[in-house]
Design goal:
Blueprint lengths: L10 E3 L1 H10 L2 H7 L3 E4 H10 L3 H12 L4 E3 L3 H10 L7 H13 L2 E3 L3 H8 L6 E3 L1 H10 L5 H13 L8 H10 L2
Parallel strand pairs: 1-2, 1-4, 2-3, 4-5
Helix pairs in contact: 3-4, 8-10, 9-10
Length: 179
Amino acid sequence: MNSSSTEISLWMLDSSTFINGCIIGQLPLFVLIRSPIYFSEYVFRVELGINAREKTRRQASMCVERSKIGIRQLSLTDLDRINELGAPRRIGLGEITSAIIAQREAGGVLCDDWRGRSWLERRVPVTRWESVEDLLLHAAHLNHISEFDLEQFQEALESERYKCRYNLRLEHLRRLANR
């Protein structure tokens, strides 16, 4: 399911990863290394729209208006699939809609909601799941950012209560050493 050699037709961007990308100011980088990238219409209109802070709403709208991030809609079949899942309330509709569209389109999901992701991984097979940490480590691997940038980004994320699974700078250096 997480094979890096599998072709990804599109990436669905959940609100959590979008917000984390905004926190560290790296949305353009995310779009560069994970393209084409889309919001589900639900994520864009609800989670990054009516339920979001004004600043977040403006940033999301600007990305869509400038065609950096597209919008994908759910089909009637997708809605039936969501209903069949019977997801508990703690699993957000943003993660569910992103996963359903990614499954339909043979795509990946960029999601930082670990609880939602864990529940969905067993029920909605998608090509690949990635977090903000995965995106940053891949960007460092491609030399778009440095090990010191990783350190700064981790500090910024953690100051906003995001808990990284490991020290990004050390993980990057470990991966470099194992190439």
